[in-house]
Design goal:
The protein is an alpha+beta fold. The protein folds into 2 domains: 144 residues, D-amino Acid Aminotransferase, Chain A, domain 1 (2-Layer Sandwich); 70 residues, Dna Ligase, domain 1, CATH 3.30.1490.20. It has 7 helices and 10 strands. A hairpin with a 4-residue loop joins strand 8 and strand 9.
Amino acid sequence: MYSLIEKFINNKKGMRSFSEYELKGLLKSLGFSIPKGIFISKKDINQIPFPLPLDYPLAAKISSPEISSKSDAGGVILNIKNEEELKIAVEKLFAFESCEGILIEEMAPKGVEVIIGGIMDNQFGPVVMFGLGGIFVELFKDVAFALAPMDEKDARWLIKQVKGYKLIEGYRNQPPADMETLMEMIVSISKIMATGLILEIDLNPVVLYQRGALVLDAKMLQL
């Protein structure tokens, strides 16, 4: 893992932050599951291979070094149902002056949304964060922290610290989420943080299913 992350950072010529598309490529090489997608750079705007080898509905997201929150800036368009809507979305996103490209992905099925992250704390060193998504993190700040690196036993303990844990177990006839995959992801994030190469990583949201999970968005800063 250390060598893969070090190579990724070195290939980016000292950049501290990375595009979602680049970071998802790294995460995929580390064993994380991501939605099927395609990246189109601005220089290829007139060479988009319609029809795309993706199944509708789709999501289109801007890639720009000047936009930290794509959703707040209007740089995310969801539930694109056909090629005509996709062309309109692509034209709208490429109109952003700072746009470097567009990530187009298949929309993920609904599931339990969680947040998995890590930060290099000045006092404690590498720390992992886990929480439930949606209103649980926005209103109730329902998150928990643990020191990295971690094993699966530590990951299970961390998951059970959040108030919304029952949603993962299965609540009101909802099926339980894939606990084993979730623990593996938390352990992997802890190992990423333990490399000492990363200042911060944020997978938000991660959608959990009965079997498996998908990382829908990701951000990372190197030290």
